[in-house]
């Protein structure tokens, strides 16, 4: 084998990997499928090969999948066969290419950066062919591909991807306009990319982008208008381009020229931008890293993660434009759960502060500040979320003490943007900012704004401007009250670590509150935090389906309007039954042969809007009975579930209803766990839980594991009781998806309380729930070591409720460090004390590093020595002799890493010496056992002088045993009770038999002392005495 290079070497045909990387599972599977296809077609003509593949596909679902994936892989890896392989794929696929689309999405989301150049080129070619063929679902794939075009990246690969995707959109314009969401996503993407493509070398590409965006905005403006206020922000950035300037004039002065339904700029600015658009400008890798920082990284430990992100994505001058995308994503998409808000996880404002302070371009810095305040300008408490405006106020608040210049810059920007954003709308902007500040105080994000607006650290001119603009917020409360701040650990700004800010949210209704303050001996304040979530008031508004209803056919439109009429508050008791009747009529219309599938998306949008009230509040009844469960599933949306349950999977209507649910899932993700609840709670769905797998495969995700985890996560965030109710069924019905990793388990233990934990343990004990199995339990327990304390204790309690042998998980000891993993060590210790020690257990226990503060090994050995001394003695003897026979060079290392890797003789002796000391003043006779003494004698005979000196007390036990063995037989019979322990302390009480020959015993006991000082001649002395 050739020596491996440091650079990446392609080891497979699909992905680039280094020689040290493990084989990728997906690549391995695809290559296996290629092998199947080639074995079926080698040496055959095209016609014969096609017949062979067709015959194989007809054998079953697995053969169909293997052939399709094999042809798909050939398309990606062999350009010379791509055309033929794609043709065969279209002919052989029996699921509308759904399996292939799922794998394309998986590669785009997880493997795109690792694709070899040929595979990347072929993947784009394949997407183009799918679009040409009009394959259902190709629009979703194209949106995912667009997401891989990174903002602020001027590399040749990124520019090539941007141009090729644009060519697909331009070439297939008729197909494009059929998907309103794809039109809006494409316009949003290329308006943003235009900013990066302003150099002379890229003018041709930018002109193509301009022509495309102008074409879509003028021809399909209302499709683009769904973007909302961020469409205006993007258009502002490219307003100096001549064609865009003309569009701006129409936008401002002649809105009807763009669309009769468009009333003007204010219509866009008051519409909140969907998180779909904000997320589409971050690549999957960026999004994963950012979500990791905001959900897993502890506040104060973020520096290395930020430095990595900076090096990877923000190190060039062109990449500065990406900061706006990141800030808009953090404000509009990253909305932490209550559990995260109450923890010490890195807060959003700290990341935004870092992005602002590390910006190296004035233009980019100004755009970044606009991105931060953009939702403030036309904020409406009824439509917008407190989470969108919270980061800006917290950045200013927390920067006041360590970096007042940052706070001053942001406050100045907030004041000046009011008259300068768009003068004709100055009063609306002023009202939007005023609404934002008022809502911030109402939600108690900050107790009062006077300490921020009228702070002595701000210069006089700025304070004067703030008093002029916002007099209502510049007066201190009377009587004066302390304004408490959110506890701050550190914020990485200008690459410096800031001093800790003490305090917390002053919140009677929101965030943290502190009831007591204590000052410890060092003078530091100790506060007990109590978290209360920010509660947004739910205002029931009539469902608005105006944008969608005109796209429906007349019969369907009438039914939808009828449904809207009886779902509009206030509702009567009889309305639920009427809603179900109308919903059944709609389902019947969907199942008719002449139903147009292109209306599915529009109908799903209408239903999602009409049923939005059904997805609020708790699903599970307070008292669970058969009657209450049946009543809880008598909702109109459940009629789709019920119809699915009554159909056979080979029924044509079955797939139509699945498509309906998949579309509805895109509009309302909660539909997933509602389906799971229906399948468990409804009598009509008994034994139909596998239906969920068909639903998962029909969704855009296309993968059961991903879909299940997303749905359970949504359930966890909405209703913990329902999560616990569903858990037994989910684990029993989908063991391969739930038991192979700790993802679902972590979701559960992160939110349950002690009562729910006890209920789950009872389910396990009764055999209704299995949460661990032997092949994966060790990996899951290792994963849990990074979880919170209560989560770990809960995990161990659930594990101990199962009947899994300790030998299965005892290797976890190699991963446990006494300072970092006290939860796992304490649970393991309590369980080991109930077990009879086996050889593997003793070996693992002895292989722990020797540390003065780590009492784990000594405590369990002492317990076993008292309760299971015979078994423990034999196992320790085995380990001593086995390790004593190994080469000395393997036993000389004493680093913790080597100790974890292998048990050494020195470790065993160290642990035994600690055990000896712990038993010194007890009556335990463990070290008087023959196996232990024989083993020590064996080791002493071959070890070096350093070890003999270090463990002299331990080896002295063996010496006494050796001398005892060398006594005359008559003497040894007279003193059976003597033991090596006698030299360490008071002798045991003499028995009658001992006292008969006391003088002989005393005389004999005194003899070993002389030869002990001269070990080298002990054998000679022994023979002389005999």
Automatic annotation (TrEMBL):
Compositional bias segments (type: Acidic residues): 991-1005
Subcellular location as annotated: Cytoplasm; Nucleus
Designated name of the protein: Integrator complex subunit 3
CC terms in the record's Gene Ontology section: cytoplasm; nucleus
Organism listed in the record: Gadus morhua
Region described as Disordered: 965-1026
Gene name, Swiss-Prot/TrEMBL: ints3
Positions of transmembrane segments: none
Any one Pfam family match given in the protein's UniProt record, by short name: HEAT_Ints3_C
């Amino acid at each position: 084998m050739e020596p491996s290079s440091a650079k990446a070497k392609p080891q497979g045909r699909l992905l680039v990997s280094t020689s040290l990387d493990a084989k990728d599972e997906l690549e391995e599977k695809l290559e296996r499928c290629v092998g199947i296809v080639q074995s079926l077609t080698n040496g055959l003509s095209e016609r014969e090969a096609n017949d062979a593949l067709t015959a194989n596909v007809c054998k079953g679902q697995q053969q169909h999948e293997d052939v399709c994936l094999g042809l798909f892989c050939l398309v990606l890896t062999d350009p010379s066969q791509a055309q033929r392989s794609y043709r065969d794929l279209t002919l052989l696929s029996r699921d509308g290419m759904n399996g292939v689309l799922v794998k394309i999405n998986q590669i785009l989301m997880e493997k795109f950066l690792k694709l070899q150049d040929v595979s990347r080129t072929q993947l784009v070619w394949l997407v183009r062919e799918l679009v040409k063929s009009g394959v259902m679902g190709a629009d979703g794939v194209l949106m995912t591909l667009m997401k891989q075009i990174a903002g602020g990246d001027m590399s040749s690969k990124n520019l090539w991807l941007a141009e090729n995707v644009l060519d697909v959109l331009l070439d297939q314009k008729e197909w494009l306009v059929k998907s309103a969401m794809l039109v809006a996503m494409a316009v949003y993407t290329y308006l943003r990319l235009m900013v990066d493509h302003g150099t002379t070398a890229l003018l041709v590409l930018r002109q193509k982008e301009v022509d495309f965006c102008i074409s879509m905005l003028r021809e399909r403006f209302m499709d683009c208008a769904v973007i909302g206020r961020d469409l205006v922000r993007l258009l502002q950035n490219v307003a100096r381009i001549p064609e865009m300037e003309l569009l701006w004039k129409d936008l401002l002065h002649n809105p009807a020229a763009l669309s009769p339904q468009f009333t003007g700029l204010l219509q866009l600015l008051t519409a909140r931008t969907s998180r779909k658009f904000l997320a589409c400008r971050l690549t999957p890798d960026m999004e994963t890293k950012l979500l990791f920082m905001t959900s897993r990284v502890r506040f104060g430990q973020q520096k290395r993660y930020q430095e990595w992100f900076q090096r990877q994505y923000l190190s060039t001058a062109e990449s500065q434009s990406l900061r706006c995308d990141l800030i808009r994503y953090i404000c509009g998409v990253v909305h932490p759960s209550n559990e995260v808000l109450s923890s010490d996880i890195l807060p959003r404002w700290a990341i935004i502060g870092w992005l602002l302070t590390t910006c190296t371009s004035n233009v980019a810095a100004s755009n970044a500040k606009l991105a931060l305040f953009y939702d403030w300008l036309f904020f409406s408490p009824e439509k917008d979320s407190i989470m969108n405006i919270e980061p800006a106020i917290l950045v200013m608040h927390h920067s006041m003490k360590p970096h007042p210049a940052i706070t001053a810059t942001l406050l100045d920007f907030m004041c000046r943007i009011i008259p300068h954003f768009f003068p004709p709308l100055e009063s609306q902007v002023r009202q939007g900012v005023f609404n934002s500040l008022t809502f911030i105080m109402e939600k108690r994000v900050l107790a009062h704004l006077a300490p921020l607006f009228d702070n002595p650290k701000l210069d006089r001119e700025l304070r004067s401007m703030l008093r002029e603009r916002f007099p209502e917020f510049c007066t201190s409360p009377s009587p004066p009250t302390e304004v408490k701040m959110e506890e701050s650990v550190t914020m990485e700004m200008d690459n410096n670590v800031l001093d800790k800010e003490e305090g917390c949210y002053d919140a009677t209704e929101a965030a943290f509150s502190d009831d007591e303050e204590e000052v410890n001996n060092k003078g530091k304040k100790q506060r007990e935090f109590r978290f209360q979530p920010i509660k947004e008031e739910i205002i029931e508004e009539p469902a608005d389906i105006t944008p969608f209803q005109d796209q429906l056919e007349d019969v369907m439109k009438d039914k939808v309007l009828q449904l809207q009429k009886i779902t509009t508050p206030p509702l009567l008791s009889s309305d639920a039954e009427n809603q179900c009747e109308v919903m059944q009529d709609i389902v019947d219309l969907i199942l008719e042969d002449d139903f147009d599938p292109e209306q599915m998306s529009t109908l799903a949008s209408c239903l999602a809007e009409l049923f939005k009230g059904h997805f609020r509040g708790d699903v599970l009844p307070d008292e669970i009975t058969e009657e209450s469960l049946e009543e809880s599933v008598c909702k109109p949306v459940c009629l789709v579930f019920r119809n699915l349950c009554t159909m056979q999977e080979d029924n044509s209507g079955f797939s139509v209803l699945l498509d309906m649910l998949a579309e509805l899932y895109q509009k309302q993700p909660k539909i997933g766990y509602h389906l799971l609840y229906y399948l468990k709670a409804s009598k009509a769905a008994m034994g139909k839980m596998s239906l969920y797998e068909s639903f998962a495969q029909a969704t855009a995700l296309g993968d059961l594991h991903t879909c299940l985890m997303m749905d359970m996560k949504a359930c966890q965030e909405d209703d913990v009781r329902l999560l616990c109710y569903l858990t037994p069924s989910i684990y029993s019905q989908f063991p391969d998806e739930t038991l192979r990793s700790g993802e679902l388990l972590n979701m559960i233990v992160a939110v349950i309380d002690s009562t729910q934990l006890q209920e789950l343990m009872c389910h396990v004990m009764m055999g209704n729930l299995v949460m661990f199995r032997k092949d994966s339990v060790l990996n899951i327990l290792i994963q849990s070591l990074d979880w919170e304390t209560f989560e770990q204790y809960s995990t161990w309690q659930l594990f101990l409720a199962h009947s899994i042998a300790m030998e299965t998980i005892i290797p976890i000891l190699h991963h446990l460090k006494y300072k970092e993993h006290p939860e796992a060590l304490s649970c393991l210790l309590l369980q080991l004390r109930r077990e009879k020690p086996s050889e593997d257990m003793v070996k693992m226990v002895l292989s722990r590093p020797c540390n003065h503060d780590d009492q784990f090994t000594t405590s369990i050995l002492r317990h076993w020595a008292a309760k299971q001394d015979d078994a423990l003695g034999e196992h320790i003897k085995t380990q001593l002799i086995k390790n004593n026979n190994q080469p000395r060079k393997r036993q000389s290392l004493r680093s913790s890493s080597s100790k974890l890797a292998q048990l050494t003789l020195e470790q065993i002796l160290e642990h035994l010496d600690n055990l000896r000391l712990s038993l010194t003043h007890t009556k335990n006779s463990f070290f008087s056992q023959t196996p232990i003494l024989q083993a020590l004698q064996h080791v002493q005979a071959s070890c070096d002088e350093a070890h003999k000196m270090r463990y002299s007390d331990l080896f002295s036990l063996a010496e006494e045993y050796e001398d005892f063995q060398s006594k005359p037989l008559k003497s040894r019979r007279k003193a059976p009770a003597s033991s090596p322990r006698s030299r360490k302390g008071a002798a045991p009480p003499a028995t009658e038999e001992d006292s008969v020959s006391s003088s002989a015993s005393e005389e004999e006991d005194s003899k070993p002392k002389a030869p002990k000082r001269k070990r080298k001649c002990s054998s000679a002395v022994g023979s002389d005495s005999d």
